Fold:
Amino acid sequence: MASKAQDCRAMGEARIEVARVAKTPMDWKRLWKKPAHEWAIRWGTCWKACFEYRVTDFAAEVGMFVDVLGFPTNAFGPDYAMFTSPEKDFYFSVVKAKAGEKPTPADAVHLQFMVEDLFGLAKEFEARGVVFEQAPTSHEGSPIYSATFRTPNGIPVDLWGMVDPKTTIRRKPEGAKKVKVGAR
Structure:
């Protein structure tokens, strides 16, 4: 496998070099080569892709995603939950760490969601008890903003949005129950 890793590294370094030198869309078009192999995966019918992380406090993670944030589940059991959106646009799973298993380290993964109304959603989630580690913040003067909070098991959740900081809140929280969420 070492030679395969070396081959992958060389291919990856060539891709990264394009990112370093491309300055215009024309540069990207000229420099970006077709992949060595075409897409080979044929999706199944139940769900398309999912990543999973392991936690010690499974109940707290489930309570936050289902009852505080409002995520639907695609699969659920006493030690496994697969979350999605109402439109089933994405999937991720949380599994309870078994005896002797280590949970996923808090900063090993970030859940990231691109949202329509970042400022409105942040206010709504705050009204539900979510404590933000980083309030909506711009990135180097661009229209891209992000905000971060953590799950009860410390996994960062980043909300991203293309926004104008003067955006009005389109969705106002109504009678949201306040609960404290977040590892910090």
User: Anything to note?
Assistant: The mean pLDDT is 88. The longest helix spans residues 2-21. Strands lie at 51-55, 73-77, 80-83, 92-96, 111-114, 132-138, 144-150, 156-162. The two ends are 40 Å apart (CA to CA).
